[in-house]
Amino acid sequence: MLPDLLAAIRHAHHTPTGDASAPDPLVRVYRLAAQTLVKLGEPHLGLLAADRAMMAATGDPHRTGLAAVSLAQALRALRRGRLAKAAALSAVHQLDRTPSRAFLPDGPGLTGTLLIEAALAAATCGDAATAHDLTERAVDLAAAHGNRQHDGDGVAFGPVAVTLARALAATHLGDHHRAVTLHRHAANSEGWHRLPAEHRAAHLIDIARAHLDLGDPAAAGRALLTADRLAPAETRTRSAARVALTTILRTGPTPADVTRLAAVLGLTRQ
Question: Per the domain annotation, does 231 fall within a domain?
Answer without folding.
Answer: no
